[in-house]
Amino acid sequence: MSARRASIAIAWLGLTWPGPSLAALPSPDAVRAAAEQAVHVRFDLPGSRVVVQALPLDPRLRLAPCTLPLRATLADAARPVSRLSVPVHCPQSDGWTVRVQVQLQLFRAVLVSSRPLLRGDGLDQADVRAEQRDVTRLGYGYLDHLDQAAGRTLARALPEGSVLTLAALGGRRMVRAGDRVQVVAQQGDIVVRAVGIALGSGDNGARLRVRNEGSGKVVDTMVQAPGMVLALP
Q: What is the Cα–Cα distance from 4 to 130, expressed in whole angstroms?
């Protein structure tokens, strides 16, 4: 029987020529799922909520059959950014690798200001609250423990609800609550100095109240240097 007649007979019988197993052909969904799983494994840590979505593959992509489970990996050094490129590999000897674009949202508890804060303010528990934020969109970083700001003051004013970052912090506080400080009062060429007790903490330029150690009078001052404040009119 000729090859043409054989093919017609096979088609008439509803049969097909033997060929590659369809089960061995990787589906786009399987490739995308492998990439999403790799991102979950890398970033799903205690206290985090991970939301991932792999973008569609190029419809022109044709992948060869793969008889082994797909393997996707993400480097330990990978940072949490809003879009990641994840390599998915067919690990057989003649395998292939395709990169899958994955969108990531990583929600973690970060510290935000619970009230408007001024430049030079120190931070304590009453000044902050924890909120869930997508940290992939916090390009300037974030603080998640108040200990990270210990002894530091704000380098700039922050409105309520601002995410606290290391960049927002200045140096260590020049004056701490309870410190004995030198209060300098100046009017024209006349300079008067006294010793007071700081009732607050602050960095250079911060306003705080000081109690005169001798008279007990409380005055408004501005921090000028470590242990020194200027009485305000």
A: 75
> In the predicted model, what is the mean pLDDT of residues 160-170?
89
CATH among 1.10.630.10, 3.40.190.120, 1.10.1520.10, 2.30.30.760 for 180-231: 2.30.30.760
Contacts of 165 (CB under 8 A, 6+ apart): 138, 140, 141, 142, 143
> Considering the entire predicted model, what is its pTM?
0.63
CA 160, CA 168: separation in Å to the nearest integer?
Answer: 14
Quote the CA–CA distance of 200 and 223 in Å, as a whole number. Answer: 11
Specify the amino acid at residue 64. A
Cα–Cα distance list, 56 to 27, 82, 102, 111, 134 (Å): 12, 16, 9, 35, 23
Question: What was the pLDDT predicted at 85?
Answer: 94
Q: Rg (Cα) of the chain, in Å, rounded?
A: 33
Chain mean pLDDT for the chain: 85
Say which CATH topology domain 108-172 has: Type Iii Antifreeze Protein Isoform Hplc 12 (3.90.1210)
